Amino acid sequence: MVMKKQISIQSFFEKYPDDESCYRYLAEQKWKDGFSCQKCGCNEYGKGYTLYARRCKSCRYDESVTANTMFHKCKFGIHKAFMALFRIGSKKKGISSTELSNEIDVNQKTAWLFRRKAQQAMKSKSPVILEGQVDIDEFGVGGHRSNMQGRSLEGKKHAQVAVEVKDGGRMGRAYALAIADFTTPSLRRVFDWCVHPMADVRVDGFYGYRALMAEYPNMGYELSDGGENFKEIHLVILNMKNWLRGIHHHCSKQHFENYLDEFFYRFNRRGKNIRKNILGNLINRFVSSPPLTYKDIMELCGLSG
Ligand SMILES: [Zn+2]
């Protein structure tokens, strides 16, 4: 998994030299399909109070470029917010909130909150359906190794990964979901979510998949044979586990899934041409998502109560 090409810091500053250029970009994105007043639906507007804001000609509602977006009530300036998204998106393995707090010079809690918002923006809402050869496997992180045989779930978090394998072992897209156990209803979630019914699914012969054979007629069992088969998916899982190391100890199931989504957001954008556009994609996701409060974030991360 090579992820070298990134847009450079120079090109970031060329594109976004100041607050004005950031607001202009947000306005272009926000109203790219035309203006429609949030309060009354009127399509006519005049100049609003803040930079690039628009004021409805009918009800006089003044909408700033950040209103009703995830940039709303951000504790620091817009240029810094773009910079933060640039850092979060361009670092191969992402960035911790401590690093972010140092890099953009905001306090830890503010950096933490922004980092979580970015993570929400990276969530896979509508996956591209995986086709052709699709390998599916499960893995666990955390917990204590038991001496007992079998797959113990105690203290461990488990996930199921689906990877498209192209000709010559090249990997296509991949997604993962957290699983509560190894029963068929749990194992089928990833199929329902992102696998085409006619895909040539390969699983490593685990019992819980048998009941899905009727719906996925091209599914086959193959033993993983000491890693010789399923090489690609095991590589993805290894990378994923390395990335998750140190995180899973204090993370809830919901939070775990947020991290899975974040990993695969980057994974699915590892080609150099797509990587270049991560910043644009994150900004657009911020613009098209409703504001999130601290309380919302705590809930979404499973951290409240
Ligand atoms: Zn209006």
Strand content bin: 5-15%
Question: Quick one: overall form?
Answer: elongated
Strand order across the largest sheet: 6-5-4-7-8
Which structural category fits the helices and strands? alpha/beta
Share of helix, binned: 25-40%
Please render the helix and strand layout as text.
Elements: H1 9-15, H2 19-30, E1 45-47, E2 54-56, E3 62-63, H3 78-90, H4 97-104, H5 108-121, E4 133-141, E5 157-165, E6 171-179, H6 184-187, H7 189-194, E7 200-203, E8 220-221, H8 231-244, H9 253-267, H10 272-275, H11 278-288, H12 294-300
Parallel strand pairs: 4-7, 7-8
Antiparallel strand pairs: 1-2, 2-3, 4-5, 5-6
Helix pairs in contact: 3-11, 4-5
Bound molecules: zinc ion.
